[in-house]
Design a protein that fits this description.
Length: 422
Amino acid sequence: MVPGRTVVRLHQPSRPGATRNESGVALVMVVVVLAIVAVVIAEIGYGAHVDLASARNARDDLRAHYLARSALNLSRLLLKIQEKMIDPNRNFVGDLQILEYAPVLLGAFSGGAADSSGMAEMVGIDLQAAKGIGLEGGGTFTLDASSEDGKVNVNCGGALASQTQKDGLAVALALLFLPAEFNPIFEQPDAEGNHMDRAQMIQAIIDWTDFDETLYGTQESAPEDYRYESLRDPYPTKNQPFDTLEELHLVQGVGDEFMSRLKGSMTVWGGCGTVNVNEADALVLALLIIQYAREPDEFQSPQRILEALQLGSYAVTLRSLLFGMGITDVQQFIDFVQGPEQALGPLIALLPPGTLPPPPPGIAVDQRSLASAITVGKRRVWKLVASAEVGRVRKRIDAVWDTAKISLAGRGRGGYVYWREE
């Protein structure tokens, strides 16, 4: 300080509450910023969680897809074993179909260590050092296989089928629909209020697949589409073979009850020549017995139809007791149909009393005609259902393998004729 000089300090008076208000604004700003940061962090975390779950699901979806395809590839391996090793030795192993044991055989590949060890114990082989056994990383797959060779092919009257082939299908369907238990299907109106008897139903099925535009079984040139033009949502007949059996729902008169009761006896795949009696159900077996009976007029009686059904049911029961042996030749089946008690005498003597009920009476058949209409040999068409599960993802592939299909790649016979993934 300089001597003799006076310094005067001026003080500006402060506003009351100013410091407190400024602190409150800062606090609000901090809270707002923290809230925004929290929302951003939460959004980033949620997005990361969704991306992780999406990636996991995509991984599991891809894995499940290829596990299901693995099941189908293994089925082809079993079919090749059937063709090369089992079918040539039918005289020793009977009618063994290895694909029917696929759920057991594939357990070594589709499960964990417990499944593999169980399979190893069953076959008496040590699989611990084997590669490719069991699944790593989670997931399972299964395979269900069934042959279509014992069913009535509803495509046999379509496309370029001759009149004889159409008439043959009409007869087969007429006999299939014959039992009185199916009367309600043909007596009640459908959802559109239309009534279809047995003859009209057969006509509609054949007209759906044949190439012409006129009604089957009539001398008149009436158009096929008249049944469908009057519907609420009209559509024309396809005039092409059925792609799937579910397509029958488009044929007028075919409803849910028809499909639930008759679907198991019909197919859209395979040939039109013969029916494999080792795969046919009781209804199809009864159809064959009636169709080739020596006195077919007798089956105008419901009692005789019932006897044919009983004979077919007895054959199916007997088949299940033979543990894969099945019917080994055509004459064996014919002998059974004509005289069950005599044909089964030696077998019944070996079984414990009460294992089989008394056989029904036999039915005389035209042996030559029946022999030309049936087979007991190797299967042609297999319906394959492969399912896989990984985490929350489930995949299913429905496929049909036709062993008679000619491969375009020059790999011999055999190929898929149907494939659907879900």
